[in-house]
Please model this.
Amino acid sequence: MSTSPSIPVNPDVLRWAREESGYPTERVAVRLNVNEERVRAWEKGERQPTERQLEELAKFLRRPLGIFFLSQPPRLAPLGAEYRRLPGVTPGRESPELRIALRQMLTRRETALGLMEELGEKVEPFSLRAHLRESAAEVAARLRLAMGVDVATQLAWPNEWRAWAAWRSAAESLGLFVFLFPSVALDEVRGLAILRDPFPVVAINSKEMPEARAFTLFHELVHVLLAAGNEELPAIREQRPARAWDAVERFAESVASYVLIPEQALREALGSGVVARSWNLPEVRSLARRFRVTPLAMATRLRESGHMTWTKYSAWRHRWDEFVATLRPRRGGFATPVEKAVNRAGRPFATLILEALAANRITSVDAARFLNLKFEHFEKLGDRLREDALGAGLGE
Amino acid sequence: MKTRLVPAWASDRILAAIYSVDSSSLMDWQARHFPVDIFVGLADRMDDLVRSARLVAPAMVREELDKVGTAGLKRWTDQHADIFVPVSRTA
Model:
């Protein structure tokens, strides 16, 4: 039992903070080790939390302590007004983990734009567009041209990690942020797009394996392009019936697969014996490895271009699902704190933070908080970013 | 002739002042601009302030430094835990 004094706070603010984070009273009660009735009493103004409890609540809800001393709840735009329509996610009913991830990424973007302005960097509007009347191959070709990635370079990447890093960097060069978000179940969201301009955000679930990340990246990027072309709206305003929305999703999938596997490159890889192929698992896996994509993405792509019939695709998909079910859960590799920070926020954001720190626009504590990285790792972070920049300059 | 940097009345106030610092002050001092193994005199003066109960910080500063600070700063905050006071006492 806590002996610290009770703190007078506005009960409406307490309720707002909990609801905004997506937690039921029960979860708060468990986390603070109090009866659920106690939490309800706080929110009705019948009792007051202690200082210790308020501090714990601030930590749990990832809010600054000061927010509880506001005279009334702040008015924030609903999160559903920020991200694209997501399959299976109802705006306002996102999981607490997804809500935290969205809030963190929105804050990161705002921070970046503020710092870019302070440092005198020119911020251009996002200029790429896509329209549903276009062919997937056409949009994909435009995207690849804008990113400047040719097929020979892609086929020379030595592994899926290098491929992911290169695709990410190429996408970032278009004037958007690519973030990874942790702690959200893959079942809920694999990737999402924050439809803002300038610097929209494409975000990938960090649980996604590297060869699948690139596909998700381009799938989300297509949604950004469609929104820029006034073809889709943020989740809360997107009212298409399910079937019409499915067509949008299929378009995004199709473009993503054409970006990763252009038609000409696929034909060359297949050679002349297309019809004779049986498309067993090893054949598709081998072809997928060549392009550093998942076998499923490759099979989908083969079907899209008519190299695999729907019947063969369905049979292949069945065998693939059976095979995947036999695999052990994938274990995460070891990443240093610096690698984790750069993976999460991306190189452009990390570089911006170091520049702002060097220019005394932010404090060392700000910098560490923005990157969620202890300050003692900042020297290594600087070294890492310089090495990456040098590698990019040498065309690695 | 010896000149005074501050007038006597100001000097008295400075000697009586209590400094309430945030995380950035401690980080910039130790982790960024004035490492304690090089700026030994400054570290001694800070210790003097702590001994005379003239350096305080909200308890949350310690938590923040644990999260974002350096190992050296963590050692220093552990050794000077008395400077951190609960928010209700600083308010």
